[in-house]
């Protein structure tokens, strides 16, 4: 999501707050589901889910052996077929509504396919206006989103897994240390480290999501063990860790993250054989759970989360485990 879109989302969510303490209302109801398999007529795998500047998010999906991939608008409408893309590709949508698929090349859907000098799909993508900031391993690159022209390159102190924009114009990156551990790194606009890293996980760990609220609160989720059955949510304010919440039931979820930009509430999906699939609200000040929304009758497997343009809903993609077999579904929650 571009910085402009993030600020607009923050304003909309802040306006929706009620109560004397301006606590945002919790999302608590599944209001719609979209069968992504039925949308394109085959069993699909969701590669990415991207917020759209107009309405509900858009899903990038593919299928084993298929010559095509598809963009599925969750607000309705006909899916758009594109030549098959790498499963590690990421989808971002420009402020003018143009979808960009970033993989081994930059595909402007409906336009040009532009080469990218990354030696493979990027590990992290951040679209900021007309600039795509990309990370592959330790290499950071900023390219023109319209032409693919490289604007600046830099090298990070460790592999970069996620990028996000800060309200002051800097970039934030999650970096895994070669010896183990996860750090938050602030980068200047020319992609150079701008401060000392903040340690989020002391040893091991796999980062899963990075979000920044309008007031600059940084929220991170990560697995903390190799089994991926234990997670952690961390907030960072003014360069210091403020809240740490340990999470159980992360076995069958990608542990993606959505955050209310007022800095009050985060949402993650928890699901495991011993834990029902639930969208879970977490108070960012205390780390306590403040609400859940059931997604399946039992367990399921879940991936990405993305907000709508007006901030009133979240969309979660995943599959419930039932007698009829899994069906790849987008759950719209308000």
TrEMBL record:
Domain of life: Bacteria
Signal peptide stretch: 1-20
Keywords: Signal
Keyword Zinc: no
Name used for this protein in its record: DNA-binding beta-propeller fold protein YncE
Species of the source: Geodermatophilus amargosae
Lineage: Bacteria, Bacillati, Actinomycetota, Actinomycetes, Geodermatophilales
């Amino acid at each position: 999501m571009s910085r402009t879109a993030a600020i607009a989302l923050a304003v909309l969510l802040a306006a929706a707050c009620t109560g004397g303490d301006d606590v945002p209302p919790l999302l608590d109801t599944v209001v719609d589901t979209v069968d992504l398999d039925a949308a394109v007529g085959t069993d699909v795998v969701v590669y990415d889910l991207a917020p759209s500047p107009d309405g509900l998010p858009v899903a990038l999906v593919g299928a084993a052996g298929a010559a095509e991939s598809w963009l599925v608008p969750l607000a309705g409408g006909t899916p758009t077929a594109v030549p098959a893309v790498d499963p590690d590709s990421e989808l971002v949508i420009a402020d003018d509504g143009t979808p960009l698929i970033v993989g081994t090349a930059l595909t402007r859907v409906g336009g040009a396919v532009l080469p990218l000098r990354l030696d493979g799909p990027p590990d992290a993508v951040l679209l900021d206006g007309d600039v795509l900031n990309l990370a592959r391993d330790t290499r950071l690159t900023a390219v023109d989103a319209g032409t693919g022209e490289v604007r600046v390159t830099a090298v990070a102190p460790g592999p970069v897994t996620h990028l996000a924009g800060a309200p002051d114009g800097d970039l934030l990156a999650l970096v895994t240390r070669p010896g183990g551990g996860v750090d938050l790194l602030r980068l200047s606009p020319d992609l150079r480290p701008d401060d000392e890293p903040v340690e989020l996980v002391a040893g091991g760990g796999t980062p899963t999501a990075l979000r920044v609220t309008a007031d600059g609160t940084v929220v991170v989720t990560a697995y903390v063990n190799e089994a991926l059955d234990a997670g952690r949510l961390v907030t960072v304010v003014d360069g210091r860790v403020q809240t740490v919440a340990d999470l159980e039931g992360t076995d069958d979820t990608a542990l993606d993250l959505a955050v209310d930009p007022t800095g009050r509430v985060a949402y993650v999906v928890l699901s495991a054989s011993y834990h029902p699939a639930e969208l879970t609200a977490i108070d960012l000040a205390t780390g306590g759970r403040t609400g859940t929304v059931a997604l399946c009758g039992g367990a399921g497997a879940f991936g990405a989360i993305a907000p709508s343009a007006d901030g009133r809903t979240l969309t979660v993609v995943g599959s419930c485990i039932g007698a009829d077999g899994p069906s790849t579904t987008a759950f719209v929650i308000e």
